[in-house]
């Protein structure tokens, strides 16, 4: 099968979050299974060029229709860790991708709508006719609209689109200008409720909704989150749209690339280990204490690694820090804040706890350092308010770091409580709480820390259970191929 991924990110060459890991990991798994996969990305000026092999111009004169004219683009080709990637560089006074950033510009909608149009134009003029076009989040949600309303009338009528929603919170509401820019026109048609119109603003178009309406199948990144999006408030206003198209909507759990996140081969940690040699894990624990000047004592280390964002439960993370210290544990945090207010909050915590020998707060993100934390910590706290899939708990399990999580989204699909889980003992791998409040955090942390101190053999069993879990891309790859085959034959 010929599959093209159109995406704003692909690790490790451009990564702002988990979406980049998904695009790379899924593409790799699909190729292992014998499929031909190509990835189309914007050519940002801050690409990790050291991660691209053999970058060369592959198409010199791509003219992308835009407003009443056309924008000249150059398309480059290169291999990213073995994946075939095309990079589109527009030559325009808008300077779409020469901003030294991936997201966060005032015209992000315009930037990524143009990229989506350019990606389809590239497929059209080069005669590439993939069986499946897989696009991701609001940034490429207009792809199925353009395919259905324009390109299928010009020879691209057999292509099918799978659209994956990584985060329903970010939908991008915009105006009629994108209809003019892309050549869609007909605002009276697209501003209908059953088309692209936002569910709550009759004067706006919703890009994510457009992707849901026009694609052949819609996935989100875990089965539990798909249920939440349909039946709870996790769709952020798109519940009615999802219900209308529920026959083509489902959840597929993300995977982890075990070539990158695997303590048995990880070159960022001082000693490699697996479930049969977990005593070597404690070499990383001592190295972590050395790195952060933590007290060397018989104490568990609880960690948080990830974005510092309202979604992640800022007040619950803060409470976990202080509650851990109160219970005699140590706490390590590594994360970059999503806004200045959150940054200031954790800088205040850092200053307040600066002299505490049992705590270290590292503001910013360092992926190499995160490997050492995953390996050196005993537990990983993930108290998210909502979590479509979650990567931290999946990595933690592989590294024998017992997750303490809130039962939401993908966390509920992957972490099963030691005391109250409905699964067999061999499949219980962490601690879970339900309510997003201090009592929930305290209950789960207290049980985890108490087990570590009082019943080390049982805690060791949890470590082994977690390390034996398979959250690679093997199962997700199989499920995505089932989706592709389902829509390809329609």
Question: How would you describe this protein?
Answer:
The chain has two domains: 2-255 and 474-488, Glycogen Phosphorylase B (Rossmann fold), CATH 3.40.50.2000; 278-467, Rossmann fold (3-Layer(aba) Sandwich). Helix 9 crosses helix 12 (367-376). It is globular, with a radius of gyration of 23 Å. The longest helix has 19 residues, at 108-126. The protein contains 17 helices and 17 strands. Helix content is 37%, strand content 20%.
Strand composition percent? 15-25%
Q: Would you identify the regions where 5 or more consecutive residues have pLDDT less than 50?
A: none
Question: How large, in whole angstroms, is the Cα Rg?
Answer: 23 Å
Overall structural class, as computed from helix and strand content, comes to alpha/beta
Cα distance spanning the termini: 15 Å
Spatially, the strands of the biggest sheet line up as 3-4-5-2-1-6-7-10-11
Known CATH architecture of the largest domain: 3-Layer(aba) Sandwich
- Fourth-tier CATH superfamily name of the largest domain: Glycogen Phosphorylase B
Share of residues in helices: 25-40%
The 3D shape can be described as globular
CATH structural fold name of the largest domain: Rossmann fold
Q: For this structure, what is the CATH class of the largest domain?
A: Alpha Beta
Please, how many helices? Answer: 17
Q: How is the topology of this model organized?
A:
Elements: E1 2-6, H1 18-32, E2 36-42, E3 52-66, E4 69-80, E5 83-91, H2 108-126, E6 132-136, H3 143-149, E7 160-165, E8 173-174, H4 177-182, H5 187-190, E9 205-206, H6 207-214, E10 217-220, H7 223-231, H8 239-244, E11 249-251, H9 281-292, E12 301-305, H10 314-326, E13 330-335, H11 340-352, E14 359-363, H12 367-376, E15 379-382, H13 392-398, E16 402-406, H14 409-414, E17 431-433, H15 438-454, H16 456-467, H17 474-488
Parallel strand pairs: 1-2, 1-6, 2-5, 6-7, 7-10, 10-11, 12-13, 12-15, 13-14, 15-16, 16-17
Antiparallel strand pairs: 3-4, 4-5, 8-9
């Amino acid at each position: 099968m010929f599959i093209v991924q159109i995406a704003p990110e692909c690790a490790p060459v451009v990564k702002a979050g988990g979406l980049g890991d998904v695009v790379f990991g899924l593409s790799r798994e699909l190729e292992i299974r014998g499929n031909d996969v190509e990835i189309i990305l914007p050519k940002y000026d801050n690409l990790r060029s050291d991660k691209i092999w053999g970058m060369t111009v592959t198409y010199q004169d791509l003219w992308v229709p835009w407003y009443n004219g056309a924008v000249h683009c150059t398309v480059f080709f290169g291999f990213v860790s073995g994946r075939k990637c095309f990079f589109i560089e527009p030559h325009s006074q808008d300077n779409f991708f020469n901003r030294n950033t991936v997201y966060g510009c005032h015209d992000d909608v315009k930037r990524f709508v143009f990229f989506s149009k350019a990606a389809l134009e590239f497929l059209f003029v080069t005669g590439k006719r993939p069986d499946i076009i897989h696009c991701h989040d609001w940034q490429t949600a207009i792809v199925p609209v353009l395919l259905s309303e324009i390109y299928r009338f010009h020879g691209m009528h057999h292509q099918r689109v799978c659209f994956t929603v990584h985060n329903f919170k970010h939908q991008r509401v915009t105006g009629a200008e994108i209809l003019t820019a892309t050549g869609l026109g007909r605002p009276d048609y697209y501003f209908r409720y059953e088309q692209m119109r936002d569910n709550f603003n009759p004067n706006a178009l919703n890009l994510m909704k457009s992707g849901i309406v026009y694609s052949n199948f819609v996935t989100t990144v875990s089965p539990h989150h798909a249920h939440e999006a349909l039946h709870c408030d996790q769709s952020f206003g798109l519940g009615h749209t999802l219900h209308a198209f529920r026959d083509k909507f489902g959840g597929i759990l993300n995977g982890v690339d075990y070539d990158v996140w695997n303590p048995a081969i990880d070159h960022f940690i001082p000693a490699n280990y697996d479930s049969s040699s977990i005593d070597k894990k404690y070499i990383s624990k001592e190295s972590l204490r050395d790195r952060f000047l933590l007290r060397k004592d018989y104490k568990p280390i609880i960690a948080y690694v990830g974005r510092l964002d309202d979604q992640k439960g800022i007040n619950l993370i803060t409470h976990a820090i202080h509650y851990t210290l109160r219970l005699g544990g140590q706490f390590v945090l590594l994360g970059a804040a999503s806004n200045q207010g959150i940054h200031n909050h954790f800088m205040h915590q850092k200053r307040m706890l600066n002299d505490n020998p049992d705590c270290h707060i590292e503001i910013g993100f360092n992926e190499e350092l995160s490997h050492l934390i995953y390996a050196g910590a005993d537990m990983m706290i993930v108290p998210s308010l909502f979590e479509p899939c979650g990567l931290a708990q999946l990595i933690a399990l592989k590294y024998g770091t017992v997750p303490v999580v809130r039962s939401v989204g993908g966390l509920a699909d992957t972490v099963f409580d030691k005391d109250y889980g409905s699964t067999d003992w061999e499949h219980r791998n962490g601690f879970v709480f339900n309510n997003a409040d201090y009592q929930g955090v305290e209950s789960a942390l207290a049980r985890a820390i108490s087990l570590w101190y009082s019943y080390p053999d049982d805690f060791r069993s949890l470590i082994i259970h977690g390390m034996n879990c398979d959250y690679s891309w093997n199962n997700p790859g199989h499920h995505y191929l089932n989706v592709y085959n389902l829509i390809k034959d329609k």
